[in-house]
Specification:
Layout lengths: L8 H5 L5 H9 L2 H6 L2 E5 L4 E6 L13 H17 L7 E11 L7 E11 L3 E10 L4 E12 L3
Antiparallel strand pairs: 1-2, 2-4, 3-6, 4-5, 5-6
Length: 150
Amino acid sequence: MTNEDALAPDAKATGPAPDPALDALLAAVPFAVELGIELEAAGPEFAGAVLPWSPRLCTVGGVLHGGALMALADTAGAVCAFFNLPAGAGTSTVESKTNFFRAVRSGHVRAEARPLHTGRSFIVIQTDLYDAEGKRVGQTTQTQAVLGTG
């Protein structure tokens, strides 16, 4: 994905994109759509996404699989990084580290992604994961490469 496929610059400048624009942005990541991730906000300073709990995404004991949580964090982080790219550039995750703090057995998980560093070659994003009660269930720090600028 390149940022030429993103929302029009005027849409980004006026605040959160309308739902059809967020749906179109998420459609560029078919795996996220397959998991049931919903994009709630997208911009250079913040991206928010939600993953509903589902038995099909669980491991033993009805616990939401860590891989599903990491995919949620990666998706929100990539969207946030995407909005920090120079014109015509793309991005790809090159490193990701997740800490899990508690199990999720129902409800949903909300991802809140914010940039820690936006450079010419790499963008570093921190994504906090919260359960339906607002308790932090995990935290992911990922590095996104800036592609196609040189």
